Amino acid sequence: MLSYITLLLLCQLAGEIITRLAGLPIPGPVAGMVLLFLGLVLRGRVPAELEKTSQGLLRYLALLFVPAGVGVIAYLDLLSHALLPVAAAVLPGTLLTVAVTGLVMQRLGRAAGEKR
Amino acid sequence: MEARLAALLPGLIHAPLLWLTLTLLVFQGAEALFRRTGAHPLSNPVLLSVAAISALLLACHIDYQVYFSGARFLHFLLGPATVALAVPLYRQMEIIRKSFAAIMVSLLAGSLTGMGSALALGWLCRADPRIILSMAPKSVTTPIAMGIAGEIGGLPSLTAVIVIVTGITGAAFGGWALDRVRVKDPVARGLAYGTASHGIGTARAMHASPVSGAFAGLAMGLNGLATALILPALVGLLHIGAAK
């Protein structure tokens, strides 16, 4: 378990270093995800302990967003100045984005005749 | 109230214990409510927890910085958790390989809808160009969105809030939208959550199914990249904020 937590941190660290050095417009952890993915492709299987460690972390992924989410209160003033456009663009815009992405993928998936 | 609380709990208020415990308690309560209401959108655990903790902090006049200095230990785990998304993603290798083109096309469609809807709706509301530009990268994960906002002439701190609001909106009501347009495929649902609502949407998708979660994580990364590449060019093309 500990060795795989270390592996996750190492991937993140490598991701941070690579994105900084290369000036890539993606965050370090996302680059770390790509690195771990490539590692798994090379290895050809997922070690059981890594599976457990990642499941443990991902099970509570939603919880991990709460501290950042509460950050909204630090910007209430700023937000109140832009309330109308934010409400008008964020709510329908987000739902439209969800619907369009889902519909296109479902149609294309069907068109390709895949069975899942 | 703040003074009294600080006197009552000397040291506690500036230590992580109180805020970590509070966050865990509130989140578990929110999850229980989410289950009990049959996954009602308004009882989304992130939405409820953020609302409850925010209300408490505001009522007690406690600064966000004080709360975050304790709760940041949970926040820190977001990094390794994002890396860990590679594992469920690897399990979906077969589908990724087979549907690579379909994934890219739907991602691009979603990415453009996200940026385009923010620009168009903001323009329709006659919003200040700086606010429109702050909203445009709303669907992508916070660090990318703030970087883009700064680059195109928006306000990065406003973008940070809008990104969170977008994430919670998609996580809470995205499932409702997908049900309305009859998208049932877990791959398509996952891509939709991740494209529109980055990590918070990914967490919601992961809760629905590991397959959805894996594709949401993929979409989150890809849409971050797509938006970073496309949005500055799109804004230049439309001459938004030319007067800035």
Question: What report would you give on this structure?
Answer:
The complex is a heterodimer of chains A (116) and B (244). Chain A has 2 domains: 1-64; 67-116. In chain A, 79% of the residues lie in helices and 0% in strands. Chain A is built from 7 helices and no strands. Chain A has helices at residues 2-22, 28-43, 48-59, 61-64, 66-69, 76-81, 83-111. The radius of gyration of chain A is 20 Å and the shape is extended. Chain B is mainly α. The chains are: A mainly alpha (116), B mainly alpha (244).
Number of domains of chain A: 2
Radius of gyration of chain B: 19 Å
Given the structure, what is the number of helices of chain A?
A: 7
Pairing-aware structural class of the strands and helices of chain B? mainly alpha
The two chains with the largest interface, and their residue counts, are:
A-B, 76 and 121 residues
Number of domains of chain B: 2
The chain-level structural class of chain A is: mainly alpha
Task: Give the biggest sheet of chain B.
Answer: none
Runs of chain A in which pLDDT lies below 50 for 5 or more consecutive residues are: none
- Seen as an oligomer or otherwise, the chain set is heterodimer
Name the average pLDDT of chain B.
Answer: 92
Query: What is the succession of H and E elements of chain B?
Result: HHHHHHHHHHHHH
Cα separation of the termini of chain A:
32 Å
- The Rg value of chain A, from CA coordinates, equals 20 Å
Can you count the beta strands of chain B? 0
The overall pLDDT of chain A, averaged over residues, is 91
Number of strands of chain A: 0
Strand and helix order of chain A: HHHHHHH
SS field, number of helical segments of chain B: 13
Note poorly predicted spans of chain B: none
